Amino acid sequence: MTTETSSSDQIINLVLLGRKGSGKSRTGNTILGSNEAFKFGYQIETKSCAIERASRFERNLRVIDTPGIDTFSLEESVKLRKYISQTARKNIIYLLCIKIGRFTEEENNLIKHYIRYIGQDFEKATIVIFTHLDEWISDSQDQGILEPKFEDFIATLDKNSIQLLNKFDMRYKPLNNRKSGNDEVVKQIICMAEQLTRQSSISRAVPQLQCEPEVESQSILCCNFM
Ligand SMILES: Nc1nc2c(ncn2[C@@H]2O[C@H](COP(=O)(O)OP(=O)(O)O)[C@@H](O)[C@H]2O)c(=O)[nH]1
Ligand SMILES: [Mg+2]
């Protein structure tokens, strides 16, 4: 097939957000299919944003790694926001990385912080990536749960966390970045991202100022990968 009518020939900008050590750089690598794209590790302190481009499953991606916010300083937030709007004009999807089991008060505050400084598009354009799935599985097994199910983890979240996930229409994916062969979950993340870019407020160019939110259908349908 050579004719393509979907937005697959357009670039999808995936911006990695989250706390330091939440697995942003490694999640970027998993999506890019290369462990050499972004440097990762607790000892690596990413001081500035970095961009890598790739074509994955016939989708053109730009993956933007960010330093990660811990201090919630206004200055850092404004710098990040400015960087995002300068490097990616449209089709911006945020991958909010949270280490499984670390969905605490601080993560809740972080999300509120992003909503405040990135704006309402953040809610409409975010997919939560729960990293360190492997550690959660082995911890659960060590506690006698033979076949831990990720949905059971979601069921343990408190009301506040569920309310926050609801802001993202429960768009989340668990991820084990240490595993090779993550193609299926990467496809699912790209598919979700692509569906989100079809919403007009996300697909259009982002001016320096916040876009007005628009009411759009939220349905996330599956899409075909060849
Ligand atoms: N076991 C495990 N370790 C992970 C996973 N994702 C990231 N890490 C590790 O967590 C640490 C922080 O990851 P990194 O991507 O550098 O976090 P960042 O600061 O948010 O960019 C590194 O040691 C990674 O190897 C995962 O899914 N499973
Ligand atoms: Mg990093």
Automatic annotation (TrEMBL):
Provide this UniProt record's keywords sorted from A to Z.
GTP-binding, Nucleotide-binding
Q: Which SUPFAM superfamilies match?
A: P-loop containing nucleoside triphosphate hydrolases
Domain AIG1-type G residue range list: 9-214
Query: Can the keyword Nucleotide-binding be found in this entry's annotation?
Result: yes
A Pfam family annotated for this UniProt entry:
AIG1
Oxidoreductase in keyword set: no
Organism's domain of life? Answer: Eukaryota
Q: Which GO terms describe its molecular function?
A: GTP binding
Which family would the database say this protein is a member of? Belongs to the TRAFAC class TrmE-Era-EngA-EngB-Septin-like GTPase superfamily. AIG1/Toc34/Toc159-like paraseptin GTPase family. IAN subfamily.
| Protein's name according to its UniProt entry | AIG1-type G domain-containing protein
Which species?
Mytilus coruscus (Sea mussel)
